[in-house]
Amino acid sequence: MSGVITEMHKVDGMLSILRMQGRAGADSLQQGMYLDVLRDFKITQAVFDSSLAWYTKNPKRFEAVYVQVDRNLENWKKQVESGKFGKDSVTIATVVLWQKNKLVIANDSASYDSLNFEIKNAVLVPHDIYTLHFLQKIEKDSVPNSPKTMLKINYADAKNDSVLVPSYADGLSRRFNICLKAKKIERITSVNAVMFMPDSAKRNVRVAFDSIQLKRTYNILAQDSLQRKINQLPQKLLRDEPTRIFQKRQP
Asked: Looking at residue 163, what is its pLDDT?
């Protein structure tokens, strides 16, 4: 049983790649690919459904099956990453979660705050890597101390991972790539960014931003096992939410 379920999760991983790439017809392929897996193991759909029903009634046995499935997928991931199946067998995917491509000029508290954003998405899981890309130019000698940009991952237990990166008031355009990994095995409630934090009482600083983009990099094959770990957390912490993007608007 663990072998069949392992192969079905590999199918799910391949279809996830197709969906992320915007390929049409990915969903219609799923059932046919599942049937191909059953044929490879020389079992029928009826036999598989019957076995699945039995394991559902015997959760401890089913849990043991999934322990082996996790091991199989972890071994498969290591083989793929080592290049055993060729350079095209990629398990890492990157998607854009949020972007603002136009030039934005901010020069007061309200306009600074309007650049901040928060993303809530039920599919975000541990070990994701979030990268905030942007171009920034701060008016020369406009602040005595270095302003900062903050990227933060918020968890359901009210803790977080965060990173603060300083910038420079030198009148030069700089490209930033701020990376942050979700280290905790905990449900991620949101990812948010505070784009401009002046470290002084002087708030009316002219700053220009362009090509702001937040990307998520994740391991496709690990998604199912990580999501199961999240689902085993106390139910009071589980509250699936659709993707939401919160951004303060200028008055």
From this structure: 93
